[in-house]
Structures are given as structure tokens and as C-alpha cells.
Q: What sequence folds into this?
């Protein structure tokens, strides 16, 4: 028996060693700029949401649509490479970025300080108010839920868990893994309130159709900002993404896409202090495909 | 690669809480699946025509429905609370496999054993309990160890209904600190420890059965 346990422990140690070496190898491969990697590969691996309308979702025809996928298409077109859209979720987006399985997370990621410690971010590219989803008949004022024993529902790994704890440190929060379960939990009374972004709340109501009768969109309590996630310390790639965003803004493509998907003009101005970089239209000799 | 094991110490209370819930879920599910599965397995191997047909249906139905579907049915359709729904899903799912193992173990005993017990004057029930089942139990030990290990691993499915077991807690560490490798390694070690404990316990039971000459 003792030798059996020793053998199993040995196997475990070997497995852990192999895992560590693999991770080391993966990290080594990130020393080069993502921009060079994309051009060599001939393909942009863009992480987009499949479940977060209007930012990124799958249409009834099975196509990836939304603001994120459309921006990714513009990026690929200007880079002169093919595009592969990879599904990201609240849970996997940062690991996928760190492990090199995506080149950019063009989704709904809030550039929090904690996240900024491990990845980098582009300029803020979406501003979306955060509000609450509740059952019809319940209070739509978020403040009524902060100091109460009502159960809050959120997706594990989403920014809203920490955000709600800022307002209500002792709140009971049930963290689900996927949005559909979270919505069903709200409808069935397993949770009482779900903080979410405005666009997603209306997306959920639209997707539910008649079944949305029992739910109500509540009031705003925060204004969420989102940025494109990029690998840490890769300034050539980050520069290019920021230039691309500004150039698309300058020629009006950005605003048109934003209006198409969010059904409103961008409620912010892109760039540092809301200004584009002087001369951003000038295409450099190196590391600036356009 | 820069590993920071201090994170695991910082989250020790969350990890302990998750580990305890996983352990509780696993123990209850092991007990429940063993009782239910053994009962179904015995009926499948030794029952009458109707019992054999019904238990075969039970095994096929529960073995072929994914555990996630059972969990969602219990929690979202039947409205059972998350914890009892998780326990029920684990028990029902694994009991089908335990039933199969039990039935196979009983069928592996030569029919002469049963005939001899009856010839000695034991009732059908006593010959089953005192002669057949103990012999079958020895043959069942290795596959039962696998089933019990499966229960421990399958218990992570309850995180889908917001129960904060071990895998949930390791994901929390990953989300909040982005120390996924440290969190996953810790979870691996804890799950492996539970699996090894099960293997050791089952090995002990097997030896005890051998000493009894079953």
C-alpha cells in the first residue's frame, strides 16, 4: 500500500513538473511582439464575446455579430491578415490572453487595477452604464438593495462582484458560471437582483421576448468603462491597437459601428483626455501596417 | 515563471471552505450512491423479470444523461435548493455506475456457490447476504474505488448552481489574483489527496474482506 501511495505521489510530481515546464515554454514564446507574430501567422486571433449583445454575440444565423467582432474585422483588414474569432468569457479572457491563444480581448473587460497588473489595456473603447435587473414589482432603485438581505446574482469573474461589494460589503452574492443560468435564477427568485451593463440588460430582455414580462430593468448606479485587453509589456502591439482605434474614429468608422450596435453615439471621446494623438493618421515605416 | 505561493496562504480560508464542502458533498454522495446503487445492482442481478427490466431502465437512463442535465433539472426545473440538488444529482448519476459494478460482481460468482448455500439449509435471503454478496464485494472493490474517485471529481459540477466548492474557490483565486497555476496546482494536490485517501480506505476494506476469507 505504501509503495502504491509513493508511486501515485511520484506520478503527481511528474505531472506538475511537466505542467510547469509547458507554462514556462509558453511564456518564453511571448517575448516577441504580438504584431510580428500576427503578421507571420497571417491571422489575427481576436477574443470576442459570444454571449454579450450588443458587444459580441451569435446571431440566429450562427454568425458572430456585435461591436467587438466588427472592430476585429476592421483590425484584420488593416493588418492584411485573416481573422479568427475566439470565444472569450468572463472567466477565460485573461488566461487566453496570457497563454497566447488570443492576440486581443475585444470584449467587455473593465480595465481594473488588478487586471492591469497582469495585462495591458488599450484606450477605453466602450462606456456603458451599470444598472440592475430585478423581478417586475420589486424596487428598481439599486440603493434599496445595498443594505438589505436580498440575494445578489453575478457571473463569477465579472467586475460586478467587486463593484457590488464596494456598495454593500456584507451582501450575499451567488456567483454563477454562465449568463443563462443567472437569468433563470433571477426569474425563479433564487437571486433578487443582478447588476449588469445597460446594453446587456436590454439584450437579455430582447432575447427573452415574451418571457421577459416577469423582469424589469432598474436604475443606473455606476458607469462602466471597457478597454481592449492586450498582453502585458507589448508596446508595439498596444501602440498599433490604439492607433487603429483613433484612425477608425478619425474617419468615422468607429462611430458608425458604435451607433449600429449600441444604438447611440459614443457617450465619450476617444483618446487621452478625449483627444486623438496629433498626426495619428501618419503611417510609420515600421510596425504600422495600415 | 514567477510563482507566488503566498497567494494560496492568503486564500487559505476560502480554500478550506471549498475543500470542506467538496469533502461533505463527496462523502454524502458516496454513501447515497453506494446504498442506492447496491440495491439497484442486487435487483438487477438477482431480481425477478420485472425488477431486472426496471433496474436496467434505471441504469441506462441515469448513465446516459449528463450529470449537468440532472443538476439543472433538479435545481431549475424541480426547484430544489442548490445543495440538495447537487447531492441528488451526484447520487443519482453515480448510483447507475455503482449498480452496474454490483451486478457484474454478483454475476461473477459461480452459481454453484448459491446452490451449495441453499443445500446447507440457508434461506435464499441469507445465502445472498452471507455467501454471495461478501464474495462479490471483493471483486467489486477496484471498480468501486474508481466510482468513488469519480464522485469526488464530479462534485465540482455543483459550482454551476453557485455552490462554492473547491474548484469554485480555485477559480475565485484565479479571477482575483490571476494566479491560475498556483490555484490549479493547489486544487490538483487537494483532489489527489482525496483520491489517495479513498484508494487507501478501499484497499483497507479489501484486505479486511480477504482476512475474513470472503
A:
Amino acid at each position: 500500500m505504501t509503495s502504491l501511495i509513493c508511486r501515485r505521489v511520484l506520478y503527481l510530481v511528474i505531472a506538475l513538473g511537466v505542467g510547469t515546464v509547458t507554462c514556462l515554454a509558453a511564456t518564453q514564446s511571448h517575448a516577441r511582439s504580438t504584431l510580428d507574430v500576427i503578421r507571420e501567422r497571417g491571422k489575427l486571433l481576436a477574443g470576442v464575446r459570444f454571449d454579450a449583445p450588443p458587444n459580441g454575440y451569435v446571431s440566429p444565423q450562427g454568425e458572430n455579430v456585435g461591436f467587438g467582432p466588427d472592430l476585429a474585422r476592421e483590425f484584420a483588414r488593416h493588418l492584411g491578415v485573416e481573422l479568427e474569432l475566439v470565444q472569450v468569457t468572463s472567466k477565460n479572457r485573461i488566461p487566453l490572453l496570457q497563454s497566447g491563444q488570443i492576440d486581443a480581448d475585444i470584449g467587455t473587460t473593465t480595465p481594473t487595477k488588478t487586471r492591469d497588473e497582469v495585462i495591458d489595456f488599450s484606450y477605453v473603447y466602450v462606456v456603458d452604464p451599470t444598472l440592475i435587473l430585478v423581478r417586475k414589482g420589486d424596487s428598481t432603485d439599486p440603493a434599496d438593495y445595498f443594505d438589505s438581505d436580498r440575494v445578489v446574482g453575478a457571473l463569477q469573474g465579472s467586475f460586478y462582484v467587486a463593484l457590488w461589494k464596494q456598495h454593500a460589503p456584507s451582501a450575499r452574492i451567488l456567483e454563477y458560471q454562465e449568463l443563462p443560468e443567472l437569468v433563470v435564477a433571477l426569474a425563479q427568485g433564487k437571486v433578487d437582483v443582478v447588476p449588469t451593463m445597460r446594453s446587456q440588460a436590454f439584450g437579455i430582455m430582447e432575447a427573452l421576448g415574451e418571457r421577459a414580462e416577469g423582469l424589469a430593468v432598474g436604475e443606473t448606479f455606476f458607469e462602466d468603462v471597457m478597454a481592449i485587453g492586450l498582453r502585458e509589456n507589448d508596446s508595439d502591439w498596444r501602440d498599433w491597437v490604439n492607433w487603429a482605434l483613433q484612425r477608425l474614429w478619425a474617419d468615422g468608422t468607429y462611430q458608425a459601428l458604435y451607433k449600429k450596435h449600441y444604438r447611440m453615439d459614443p457617450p465619450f471621446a476617444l483618446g487621452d483626455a478625449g483627444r486623438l494623438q496629433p498626426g495619428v493618421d501618419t503611417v510609420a515605416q515600421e510596425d504600422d501596417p495600415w | 515563471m514567477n510563482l507566488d505561493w503566498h497567494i494560496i496562504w492568503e486564500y487559505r480560508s476560502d480554500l478550506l471552505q471549498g475543500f470542506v464542502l467538496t469533502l461533505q458533498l463527496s462523502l454524502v454522495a458516496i454513501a447515497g450512491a453506494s446504498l442506492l446503487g447496491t440495491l439497484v445492482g442486487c435487483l438487477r442481478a438477482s431480481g425477478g423479470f420485472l425488477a431486472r427490466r426496471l433496474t436496467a431502465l434505471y441504469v441506462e437512463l441515469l448513465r446516459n444523461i449528463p450529470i449537468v442535465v440532472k443538476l439543472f433539472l433538479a435545481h431549475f426545473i424541480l426547484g430544489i435548493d442548490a445543495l440538495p440538488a447537487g447531492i441528488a444529482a451526484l447520487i443519482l448519476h453515480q448510483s447507475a455506475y455503482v449498480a452496474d459494478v454490483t451486478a457484474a460482481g454478483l454475476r461473477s460468482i459461480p452459481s454453484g456457490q448459491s446452490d451449495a448455500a441453499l443445500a446447507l439449509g440457508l434461506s435464499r435471503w441469507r445465502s445472498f447476504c452471507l455467501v454471495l454478496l461478501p464474495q462479490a464485494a471483493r471483486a467489486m472493490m477496484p471498480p468501486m474505488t474508481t466510482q468513488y474517485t469519480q464522485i469526488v471529481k464530479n462534485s465540482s459540477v455543483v459550482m454551476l448552481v453557485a455552490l462554492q466548492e473547491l474548484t469554485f474557490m480555485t477559480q475565485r483565486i484565479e479571477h482575483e489574483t490571476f494566479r491560475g497555476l498556483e490555484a490549479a496546482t493547489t486544487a490538483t494536490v487537494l483532489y489527489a489527496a482525496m483520491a489517495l485517501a479513498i484508494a487507501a480506505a478501499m484497499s483497507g476494506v479489501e484486505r479486511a474482506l480477504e482476512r475474513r476469507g470472503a
Observations:
- Chain B touches chain A at residues 1, 72, 76, 79, 82, 159-162, 164, 168, 171-172, 174-178, 180-181, 185, 188-189, 192, 196, 199-200, 203 (CB under 8 Å).
- Residues 12-46 of chain B form the longest helix (35 residues).
- Chain B has a mean pLDDT of 91.
